[in-house]
Amino acid sequence: MCWLCNNKHAAWSSRRAFLALAGASAAVPALAQVDVGKSSSLRKLVPAEKLETAANQQYAQMMSEASGQKALAPDNHPQVVRLRSIARRLIPHTAQWNDRSRQWKWEVNLIGSKQINAFCMPGGKIAFYTGILDQLKLNDDEVAMIMGHEMAHALREHARARLAKSQATGIGLSLGAQLLGLGQLGDVAANLGTQLLTLKFSREDETEADLVGLELAARSAFAPQAGASLWKKMAQASGGAGGPKFLSTHPSGPDRIRELEANAPKVQSLYDQARKAG
User: Fold this and answer.
1) pTM, rounded to two decimals
2) 142, 150, 157, 259: which one is catalytic?
3) What are phi and psi of 108, to 5 degrees?
């Protein structure tokens, strides 16, 4: 089935409307209810601007290739409308986790593929694959948990920190040289767009993303209990040949589910307040 939109003007109008709404700032939020500590200081060794530029370029290339293969869902596709509606609820609550996100030009797109996968690149570039929606039969609360989790990776700059660690070691720079120049690491960051989707985050990164995503979702009136139900579905989908690609970088397990279940009560009041406000 061809998903290319015939009415380009309507498509771009829809996209501009989404970006305008997504950029709206929320009121000053209450203090975070989950405890994830401070972001890694190592991330500062890779310039955020260059990494975000590289991510934007890689994302644009991916969307162009998907469009060329007639696999990019048009703006009026029901699942695209659904995903962007969920994103509009989450985005206003991101700034407390990363002030840079106020300037990000958020995008959400859907790629037709059986892959069980989704991602958010540095700078707020989000993509879902139809496989993760269809095969797991996700409700809106569970979609919000995935989206919040992926957004949290970007907000907490996990890719930036991971790349700083790996590249600083790989090119043998001393800490002093990195802090004085950053030139080499900046050049490295600009050429790493293709690696962003294959990074394997640490267990600590994954826990942070789970908890920050949980809070983002709760503040946006998505049920906290969906975090655990999502990962139970993901665990069930892990059977078979190799399991979903998503699980190669986001491993599931009982510990993850227990952590989400333990933290759901911490954000329940945020969810209740958001529901009343809505």
Assistant:
1) 0.79
2) 150
3) -135, 125
What is the number of other CB atoms lying within 10 angstroms of the CB of residue 235?
A: 17
Cα(235)–Cα(254) distance, rounded to whole angstroms? 9
What are the structural domain ranges in the chain?
43-277
Residues belonging to the chain: 278
Strands 125-129 and 107-111: parallel
Active site residue 150: yes
C-alpha pair distances (Å), 148 with each of 51, 173, 179, 213: 21, 35, 32, 4
Phi, psi of 128 (to 5 degrees): -115, 150
Is 63 exposed, middle or buried, given 0-12, 13-18 or 19+ CB atoms closer than 10 A? middle
Kindly state the tokens that stand for 169: 């070691």
Q: From 205, 237, 204, 225, select the one nearest 272 (Cα to Cα).
A: 225
**Structure token digits, residue 40:** 């890694």
Give 127-177 pLDDT, tens digit per residue: 999 999 999 999 999 999 999 999 999 999 988 888 777 665 444 444 444
Q: Is 183 exposed, middle or buried (0-12, 13-18, 19+ CB in 10 A)?
A: exposed
The amino acid present at 85, given as its one-letter code, is S
**CA-based angle 153:155:156, to the nearest 5?**
65
Angstrom distance (rounded) from CA 258 to CA 98:
27
Confirm if 259 and 210 have CB atoms less than 8 A apart. Answer: yes
